[in-house]
Amino acid sequence: MYKIVLIRHGESVWNKENKFTGWSDVDLSERGNDEALKAGEELKNAGFAFDLAYTSVLKRAIKTLLNILDVMELLWIPVIKSWKLNERHYGALQGLNKSEMAVKYGEDQVKIWRRSYSVSPIALNENDKRYPGKELKYSNLFKNEIPLVESLKNTVERVVPFWEGEIVPQIKANKKIIVVAHGNSLRALIKYLDSIDENAVVNLNIPTARPLVYKLDKNLKPIKNYYLGDSSAVKKAMEKVESQGKIKK
Question: Which of 14, 134, 184, 209 could form a disulfide with 88 if both were Cys (CB 3.0 to 4.6 A apart)?
Answer without folding.
Answer: 184
